[in-house]
Automatic annotation (TrEMBL):
PANTHER family: UDP-GALACTOPYRANOSE MUTASE
Isomerase found in the keyword field: yes
UDP-galactopyranose mutase C-terminal domain: residues covered: 149-354
Keyword flag Flavoprotein: yes
Keyword annotations from UniProtKB, A to Z: FAD, Flavoprotein, Isomerase
Family matches, as NCBIfam families: UDP-GALP_mutase (TIGR00031)
Family designation: Belongs to the UDP-galactopyranose/dTDP-fucopyranose mutase family.
Cofactor(s) for this UniProt protein: FAD
Record-given protein name: UDP-galactopyranose mutase
Protein origin, superkingdom: Bacteria
Coiled-coil regions listed: none
Lineage: Bacteria, Bacillati, Actinomycetota, Actinomycetes, Streptosporangiales
A matching Pfam family: GLF
Length: 378
């Protein structure tokens, strides 16, 4: 293979490194991607029967407070003024999420001032509980009624485990907003790419010095570049080392796509289902991400039900489980990664960390600054 740099994986991390290495550092870059499309989990496609843009690996909302990342992203795409809001169905009622004054007033069935709501939640959170379990920790943060309505069933579905048997450190905080602001994100910048995610990702890869090889697994290359050409690896960390220290734990998701013969199925982009009896965790309805698109049909809509479970060996890894055993294993893999000459590990799979898109882009820009740029170019 002839290249100055090989990037494994074409998600936001890999493409940011490839784009900067080519455009700024003048390197010839080969990107190898196992899947038959670029973009990693942010990939989207226009569903052929309806023309509605579907995020194949779950809803992707772009948001950031990082000026540098925002400026960088805007080189490749303009953003709509979409602001994300989420609803949660509990029994036969529906409430805004994250928990806000709007949720609290609706749930307890009366108007409260911010101070009254704070007092009520503080009283309910004062219950004596074992904070070593997820249930106890959640109750100590938001009180039992809100925990039982919004957290218990949803968490049990996400983890296939009773929250009384999950460790408390699975949740660090459960933010409660004592205002009627029902926006999901607090970031300075938010929006969706006007022409869709794939157009954005393709523009990043569209450089004469970048060659993307789709459907190519790095571990099946005839001529491995390791040792001869620098490699940035964004695939699973444990796989790189042949799982010799064990398999890091992940949760995966199953998605069930359906075209409905109605203009609007649920009136919102994302609705969570909090009750344990409902088998799915969320329903996504993609038309609501782009109310500005006038070519969407008015007699059909695309929905996607989401189910959560532990990942088996052949499944897509989505969310790190991060159990104490995983953390010990990760420390051993990190030592080995540090000692691996000519290979840099990055991205959510390569570092075993959940990263939002803006975090993946930000850490890729830092890797280019700190690890790829030769001192003379600084
Ligand atoms: P990513 O996983 O995207 O890319 C890695 C690539 O490497 C993949 O394309 C994979 O096929 C490839 N690869 C792996 N092994 C390989 C091998 N051996 N050879 C060749 N290629 C290989 N973020 C956000 O900001 N807002 C949001 O709303 C969401 N929503 C969301 C939902 C769900 C369900 C998930 C799982 C994630 C999100 N994210 C998100 C996070 C977002 O998807 C994430 O930031 C990016 O995927 C990170 O990009 P990476 O490049 O690190 O990984």
């Amino acid at each position: 293979m002839r290249a100055d740099l090989v990037v494994v994986g074409s998600g936001f991390f890999g493409l940011t490194v490839a784009e900067r290495a080519a455009a700024e550092l003048g390197m010839d870059v080969v990107v190898v991607e196992r899947r038959d499309h670029l973009g990693g989990n942010a990939f989207s496609e226009f569903e052929p029967a309806t023309g509605i843009e579907v995020h194949r690996y779950g809803s992707h909302l772009f948001h950031t407070s990082n000026e540098r990342v925002w400026r960088y992203a805007n080189r490749f795409t303009a953003f709509t003024d979409y602001r994300h809001r989420v609803l949660s169905v509990v029994g036969d009622r529906v409430y805004p999420l994250p928990i806000s004054l709007a949720t609290i007033c609706a749930y307890f069935g009366r108007m409260m001032s911010p101070a009254e709501a704070r007092r009520l939640i503080a009283e309910q959170a004062a219950e004596q509980v074992d904070v070593g379990t997820l249930e106890g920790r959640a109750i100590s943060l938001i009180g039992r009624p809100l925990y039982e309505a919004f957290v218990r069933g949803y968490t049990a579905k996400q983890w296939q485990t009773d929250p009384r048997e999950l460790p408390g450190d699975v949740i660090s905080r459960l933010p409660v907003r004592y205002t009627f602001d029902t926006r999901y994100f607090n970031d300075l910048y938010e929006g969706l790419p006007v022409d869709g995610y794939t157009a954005w990702l393709e523009r990043m890869a569209d450089h004469p010095r970048i060659e993307v090889r789709l459907g190519v697994d790095f571990f099946e290359l005839d001529d491995s570049p390791v040792g001869t050409i620098p490699v940035v690896y964004t695939g699973p960390l444990d796989r790189y080392f042949g799982y010799t220290e064990g398999r890091l734990g992940w949760r995966t998701l199953d998605f069930e796509l359906e075209i409905k013969s109605v203009a609007d199925f649920q009136g919102a982009a994302v609705v969570n289902y909090a009750d344990a009896e409902v088998p799915y965790t969320r329903i996504h309805e993609f038309r609501h991400f782009h109310p500005e698109r006038d070519h969407y049909p008015d007699d059909r809509t695309v929905i996607m039900r989401e189910y959560s479970r532990f990942a088996g060996p052949g499944d897509e890894p989505y969310y790190p489980i991060n159990s104490p055993a995983d953390r010990r294993m990760l420390a051993r893999y990190r030592e080995r990664a540090k000692a691996e000459r000519g290979v840099l590990f990055g991205g959510r799979l390569g570092t075993y960390r959940y990263l939002d898109m803006h975090m993946a882009i930000g850490s890729a820009l830092s890797m280019v600054d700190n690890r790829l740029r030769v001192p003379a170019q600084r």
